Amino acid sequence: MLEVQDLRKRFGDKVALDGVGFAVQPGEMFGFVGANGAGKTTTMRIVMGVLQADSGEVRIEGRALTGEDRRRFGYMPEERGLYQKMNVADQIEYFSRLHGMSATAARAATAELIERLGLTERRASAVEALSLGNQQRVQLAVALVHSPSVLVLDEPFSGLDPLAVDALAEVLKDRSASGVPVIFSSHQLDLVERLCDSVGIISAGRMVASGPVDELRDSEGRSVLKVVVRGAAPGWADGLRGQVTTDGGRDVLTVEDGDDQEILRTAVRAGTVEQFGRQRPTLAEIFREAVA
C-alpha cells in the first residue's frame, strides 16, 4: 500500500499543500482530481522525490519511501521528457535499460507495449515526427516498460483520441489487476469515474473528498428522484418541491427530497410515467459540490 500522510508544502507565501493525505491499496486505481493549481502535480512530485515536502511523509508497505523504492516506480511527469531525434522503439528500449533490464527483456517489453499502444507503424519514426497524441503514447510506454511496482501518472490521457484512451485504459487495468497501485490525475471526470476504484478531490491544497467512487456517489442526501412523464398538462407538478424541464415532449421532474410514493401518484394522475427512480450523482457533480 502507498500512503501519503499530511503533506505540507509552501512556495514563498503560497501554500501549495495543506495536509494532503490518501492511501492507494495494491491493485487499486486511484483518480486524483482537482482544478489547475490545486496541488495534484506538487503531490506527485513529492511522491517521486522530485520535490521535498516541508512536512508529512510518503510511505509504502508501512515504512518510509526510499530512493530505491522510487526507482521501481513508473512515473509520467506533467512535462514530457522524450528525446526528439530518437526513434520510438529505441527510445522505449533505452529507458528500459536505464531501469536495469537486460537487452533481451528490454526488446521484448518494448515490442509488447508498441503493439498494445498502437505504435507499430511508428516504431521507426523519430519522436519529433509524431503527432502530440502519439508522443503521449511513447511517454506512457516509457513509464510502463520496466513493469513498475507503482504507477504515478500526471494527466496520462491528455491529448489522446478515444481509441488511444481505450488502449491505455486496458493496459492500466491489466497492471492494477496484477496488484500494482495506480495513481493518475485527470480532468476527464467521466473517465475517472469509469476506471477508478477510489478518488481523491483536492482544492487549494486540501483534500475535500476522498474514498471509493461508489461510496461517494451513494452518500446520503446526494441522490435525486427523476420522473419522466409524457402527456401531462402544464402545471401538473406545481404542488411538488422539484424542478420540471421539457425534453422532446416529455416533462422531466427532478426532486431532491419528498414523499416518493406521493410524487409517483401525482405523476400517474398527470400522464404516462415513462421513468421513475433515484439517480446517483456523477463524479463531475460531486466534484463541483466539493470544490464550491
Describe the structure.
It is a single chain. The chain is 34% helix and 29% strand. The chain is an alpha/beta fold and 292 residues long. It has 2 domains: 2-212, 3-Layer(aba) Sandwich (Rossmann fold), CATH 3.40.50.300; 224-291, Alpha-Beta Plaits, CATH 3.30.70. A 6-stranded mixed sheet has the order 6-7-8-3-9-10, with helices on both faces.
Short description:
The chain is of the alpha/beta class. The protein has helices spanning 40-47, 67-71, 88-98, 103-116, 132-144, 162-177, 189-195, 213-218, 260-270, 283-291, and strands at residues 2-11, 14-24, 29-33, 55-60, 63-64, 73-76, 150-154, 182-185, 198-203, 206-212, 224-230, 243-247, 250-255, 272-279.
Which class do the helix and strand fractions yield? alpha/beta
Following the backbone from N to C, one meets helices and strands in this order, namely: EEEHEEHEHHHEHEHEEHEEEHEH
Whole-number average pLDDT?
92
Largest sheet: 6 strands, mixed
Strand content: 25-35%
- CATH-level-2 architecture of the largest domain: 3-Layer(aba) Sandwich
Q: Termini separation (Å)?
A: 31 Å
Q: Note the total helix count.
A: 10
Strand order of the largest sheet: 6-7-8-3-9-10
- Report the principal-axis shape: elongated
The helix content is 25-40%
Family: Belongs to the ABC transporter superfamily.
GO biological process, one term: response to antibiotic
Subcellular location: Cell membrane
GO cellular component, one term: plasma membrane
